[in-house]
Design a protein that fits this description.
2 domains, 10 helices, 30% helix, alpha/beta, FAD/NAD(P)-binding domain, 420 residues, oxidoreductase, D-Amino Acid Oxidase, Chain A, domain 2, FAD-bd
């Protein structure tokens, strides 16, 4: 049988997936995407999800590249009716010196397709209907049999598979088989994420109008904030939106918890333009969370019969917004590899050859972005369009990200990566 590059989709069923039993550890976005990949390649798929709750109720925002969204719809991973909130421009703001008004200092073409995490999961879960999906069944361990197959153990017993995809997040059990002892490296700062109903912007018409056509970066000493609109949970209309934000900063000192909601509001009040600080201070959040920023990269994305997907394979700093993006690309790569290869082991080696170096690239890119936007922020008060463009080029250092495609990277080179 002829071969095709990993990540491509060819007609028919690949030899690697003929009669293949595939287990997926984790039923979140990465797990559902891997299940869709296995089903489309002809495998018999079982998914183990530890949570018994309704994952679609999670409402935090993510962004994906428009080209990737189009490809996922065309391939059947996502339905065309799944609501999104696409915008085409990035606007850079900071607080004007000596006052509390906003100073816009740069704009860049930066098309993104913002999504609601819960709606994205729901769409992938629907596409994975052909898999057996065990909700509320945590995996206790995974291992290899003497015959070289994979075994998945739960409280109900154990099952063997030809391939097991570890899509079990940053604390992955599956990763311990491929990379024992690997631990995340802390960055030393945190990110506060929140979503607010559109009513929070009712008294702030300027920010609302800006966000209808752009996503916004607010720079301040020691960090930055990202703001954008995402679909709500009921439909795709322009008024069914939520405001999503992420604020990056060094956590408070000893004796204070980094997840204190008052801390991020204090940061906004001290450093953001007044209208944007008032938005963060609103109390009617539909969701709010804080977590320390860290990263890690597994030395191999696959070692037959196991493969790693999403955060299990590598955790990148959120500036790359590559959590969901990478998981979706992992799935497309697996489908292409299963269709192209002559055996499951060959398919996983193809997968590792593509996804391992990409994961390493994203981790390094996230570190550079973190240094530039949190650890060693420029003096935003003196930045202008030319300075921002030059700063972006220096920060990327030859790497690619679709959000920065207008500042000197090769056209289309960053179509699969994101940042935030």
């Amino acid at each position: 049988m002829g071969t095709a590059p990993p990540g491509t989709t060819t007609g028919g069923i690949g030899m690697a997936a003929t009669g293949l039993r595939m287990g997926v550890v984790g039923g979140s976005i990465a797990g559902c995407a891997m299940a869709v990949a296995g089903i489309r390649a002809g495998a018999d798929v079982t998914v183990y999800e530890r949570s018994a709750g309704a994952l679609q109720d999670r409402g935090l925002g993510i962004v994906i590249p428009p080209a990737l969204h189009e490809r996922l719809v065309a391939a059947g991973y996502l339905g065309a009716a799944m609501p999104t909130a696409p915008v085409a421009t990035r606007v850079w703001l900071t607080r004007a010196p000596g006052g509390r008004s906003a100073r816009e200092f740069a704009r860049q073409p930066s098309p993104v397709t913002p999504c609601n995490w819960g709606l994205l999961w729901q769409a992938l879960r629907t596409a994975a209907t052909g898999a057996r999906y065990h909700r509320g069944r945590p995996v206790t361990s995974v291992g290899r049999t003497t015959a070289g197959r994979a075994v998945v153990r739960t409280a109900e017993g154990e099952e063997t598979y030809d391939v097991v995809a570890g899509a079990d997040g940053h604390r992955s059990l599956t990763r311990r088989v491929l990379a024992p002892g690997l631990r995340p490296a802390p960055a030393g700062y945190a990110v506060w994420r929140g979503t607010l109903p559109l009513s929070a912007l009712a008294d702030h018409r300027g920010p609302l109008e800006l966000l209808r056509g752009a996503w916004v970066t607010i720079g301040y000493p020691g960090g930055h904030g990202i703001f954008y609109l995402i679909p709500g949970g009921n439909g795709a209309g322009p008024d069914d939106r939520l405001l999503a934000y992420a604020v990056y900063a060094t956590p408070p000192g000893t004796g204070r918890s980094p997840d204190e909601t008052g801390y991020v509001r204090q940061l906004a009040d001290e450093h953001f333009p007044a209208e944007w600080a008032e938005i963060v201070a609103r109390g009617e959040h539909t969701a709010m969370t804080c977590h320390p920023v860290s990263d890690l990269h597994a030395p191999l994305a696959a070692d037959p019969p196991f493969l790693l997907a999403g955060d299990a394979a590598g955790v990148t700093r959120p500036h790359t917004a590559s959590g969901a993006v990478k998981a979706l690309q992992d799935a497309l790569c697996l489908e292409g590899a299963l269709r192209a290869a002559a055996s499951p082991a060959d398919a996983l080696r193809l997968y590792a050859g593509e996804r391992t170096p990409e994961g390493a690239r994203l981790v390094e890119l996230g570190r550079r972005l973190g240094r530039a936007q949190v650890e060693r922020t420029p003096d935003w008060s003196v930045m202008d369009q030319g300075a921002v463009d030059a700063w972006c080029r220096a920060t990327l250092a030859g790497s690619s990200s679709y959000l920065y495609a207008d500042v000197g990277t090769e056209p289309g080179a960053g179509a699969g990566t994101g940042t935030g």
